[in-house]
Design a protein that fits this description.
The complex is a heterodimer.
Chain A: E1 7-9, H1 14-24, E2 28-31, H2 37-42, E3 50-53, E4 63-65, E5 69-73, H3 78-83, H4 85-90, H5 92-98, H6 104-109, H7 112-118, H8 125-132, E6 135-140, E7 143-148, H9 149-152, E8 153-155, E9 158-159, E10 166-173, E11 180-186, E12 196-203, E13 206-212, E14 219-222, H10 224-227, H11 233-247, H12 258-281
Parallel strand pairs in A: 1-3, 2-3
Antiparallel strand pairs in A: 4-5, 5-10, 6-7, 6-10, 8-9, 11-12, 12-13, 13-14
Chain B: E1 2-9, E2 12-19, H1 24-31, E3 50-53, E4 56-59, E5 72-74, H2 88-95, H3 105-118, H4 124-130, H5 142-155, H6 166-172
Parallel strand pairs in B: 1-5
Antiparallel strand pairs in B: 1-2, 3-4, 3-5
The chains are: A alpha+beta, B alpha+beta.
């Protein structure tokens, strides 16, 4: 149970939220959907005394068409990503990953920004954002910083966010016609955290896969050179070898030891690439 | 710290004073005496605490009460006026033995209702997907899935299929053996 006194703030604008962050900095935690934070608070693992809830900051919840990219506000609920015709048309692999985040109730409340800022090494969105080359926008009263997602993710559950910053927007490049993308994951049951996962993009001049559940952040493997002629049984074997090398020595935990994770990384990278290639062709 | 909240619960406007540490689940159970919502894990895994918050099912053990100002909350109590006037989904759970201890049941029923509101004719797979956020330790899920499919049929106004006979009677549990 939560034992520490909490000063609870429910700003209604981004500006208000940033003011509060500027004032309280490290002593405050941003509360989005709460699907990761509140359980840790209930377990006494996190004991913030100041909470800045974004649940009334509607202006941070949006999915916008920005031409070559889709812009997703940090407080957009996973549910909105699934319901979005824009995402379905322009970036379907994002919705494909989103379908696996938690469960129905978690997706109704949890936020995309919250998931990315939580930076779990096996989070469903992260390999997708890495393989697509997404950009993260963070904001504070000092201004705005923009960086590639690979730079935003620093270490296990540790990001480039300064104490006075919040994750304001995620910009995801659209999937162009002729390009296929796919997300595959290994998990014990639906609703479990992934053990390993992989997001792949296959296009006329690109074959890339990002693999999670291996290292602190997804490992990006560019396979364009070895698959030059196309993705088929022969090149997939070469892909497997390259991925095994690139993955190195994964971390191990109760859900999978390093050797298992490495073997599964190869399996799921191949599955994601195969599926992406089929979609590129079809 | 205390905050005073204005919320609508099961259609009634309420003003509730809560500590900022209080979970929505605890506010409903302890402050409003709506004990149909259960707490099984407090970590957002089991779904026994499922309620409807502004039209969407959420796990109330992971929502702070202070965060629901001006919102509408529906709990399991909203589904029936009394023990003899059950909602069709509740009725289907009774008919199909969709519960044993009953701890997961309120959450299961609210998840079922959310599914059927969006998809009146789900497949078995879609039902299982819809309740993937609700854990049950008693039933093995089979009869819960049957209950939800049966409720869907009922809500679509379709007639019940002819039963095989003995199995249905045995489930009602009068112990009288084969007919």
């Amino acid at each position: 149970m939560i034992t520490q006194e909490i000063a609870f703030h429910a700003p209604t604008t981004t500006a208000e939220a940033l003011e509060l962050l500027a004032r309280h900095g490290d002593d405050a935690k941003i509360l989005g959907g709460g699907m990761s934070l509140v359980p840790t608070m209930n377990l006494g693992l996190a004991r913030p005394e100041i909470l800045i809830s974004l649940n009334k900051v509607e202006e941070l919840a949006y999915i916008e068409d920005r031409g070559s990219e889709i812009a997703i506000g940090g407080r957009t609920r996973h549910r909105a990503v699934l319901d979005s015709p824009l995402v379905a048309a322009a970036c379907p692999v994002l919705a494909e990953a989103c379908r696996h985040v938690g469960d129905v109730q978690v997706r109704n409340r949890g936020t995309v920004g919250g998931s990315v800022a939580h930076a779990d090494p096996a989070a469903d969105y992260l390999p997708v954002l890495v393989v697509l080359g997404a950009t993260i926008v963070v904001r504070s009263t000092r201004g705005e910083r923009t960086m590639p997602v690979a730079d935003f993710l620093v270490d296990v559950m540790y990001t480039a966010l300064e104490p006075d910053e919040l994750l304001a927007e995620i910009r995801v490049p659209k999937t162009t016609p002729g390009t296929g993308s796919a997300y595959r994951r290994l998990a014990r049951v639906e609703g479990s955290f992934a053990i390993v996962n992989a997001a792949a993009v296959v296009g006329p001049a690109v074959v890339r896969v990002a693999i999670g559940g291996i290292a602190a952040k997804p490992v990006l493997v560019d396979l364009t050179a070895i698959t030059g002629g196309g993705v088929n049984a022969a090149t997939l074997d070469a892909v497997g070898a390259v991925v095994r090398e690139a993955v190195g020595e994964p971390y191990g935990d109760l859900n999978g030891d390093p050797e298992y994770r490495r073997e599964m990384a190869v399996v799921f990278a191949r599955r994601a690439i195969e599926a992406a290639a089929e979609r590129a062709a079809g | 710290m205390e905050v005073t909240l204005r919320v609508t619960v099961n259609g009634t406007a309420r003003t509730v004073s809560v500590d900022t540490r209080m979970l929505l689940a605890d506010m409903l159970r302890d402050e409003l005496r709506l004990t149909g919502t259960h707490i099984g894990c407090a970590t957002g895994n089991c779904g026994a605490c499922t309620v409807v918050l502004s039209g969407r099912t959420v796990k109330s053990c992971c929502v702070l009460a202070a965060d629901v100002e001006d919102e509408e909350i529906e709990t399991i109590e909203a589904l029936s006026k009394s023990a003899t006037e059950l909602h069709p989904i509740q009725d289907a759970f009774v008919r199909n033995q969709g519960l044993q201890c009953g701890y997961c049941t309120p959450g299961m029923i609210l998840s079922a209702r959310a599914l059927l509101e969006e998809n009146p004719a789900p497949t078995e797979d879609e039902v299982r997907h819809a309740i993937s956020g609700n854990l049950c330790r008693c039933t093995g899920y089979h009869f819960i899935v049957d209950s939800i499919l049966d409720a869907a049929r009922e809500l679509r106004g379709e007639p019940a299929p002819a039963t095989a006979g003995t199995e249905g009677e045995a489930l009602v549990g009068h112990g009288s053996g084969p007919a």
